[in-house]
Amino acid sequence: MSIVTFPLLALIRHRMETDGEGVTTLAVGAGCPLHCKWCINKKLLQEGNPQNATAEELIERVKVDNLYFLASGGGITFGGGEPLLYADFISEFRKLCPPQWKITLETSLFIPRNYLAAVTDAVDLFIVDCKDMNEDTYRSYTGEDVSVMKENLEFLLQRIGPDRIIVRVPLIPEYNSAQAQESSAGELRDMGVKRLNLFEYVIRS
Ligand code: SF4
What we know:
By secondary structure, the protein is of the alpha/beta class. About 35% of the residues lie in helices and about 25% in strands. It is built from 8 helices and 8 strands, in the order ββαβααβαβαβααβαβ.
């Protein structure tokens, strides 16, 4: 039997409406296929080694806030890093955790399709950080091809509809503009995205 684990960099409790609905605990995982210029995950990774947690171990640590989750409709948010790298772990966590806990993923959707397809039923809310919809901007900021994210978002919209998807559209210092941000938002609305969150990256040196 193989044991699936999650490379936990940090566990942040009592988040209110910032990483999903209700009171949430944010599980920050290591590893991501993108190379964003202002990434904080890579800095975290350099500062400390992740602990590989099984689903049972993580539930044991998180359940201290069970009453908050139940009272507020919250639960656990997997972020990072790219949590979809650990799709098997998330499916396992869903099977073992209390059914009332909400599971939220913060993802770039830059991931092979089968990783995403494996968790669509296990996840209550997807928060997609789309970076920018423009091909050149996306490549210059992340080093990769925007079409992977766009095609995965189309797949997700078809598979689960727009209600369980929030797309975050950042204003990225030195890479895009308020006009470009609005242009990305317009393209996303045309795709059928209903829940958009426009915000600005705050860069800390
Ligand atoms: S998607 Fe997030 S974790 Fe991945 S490189 Fe970009 S900022 Fe870092």
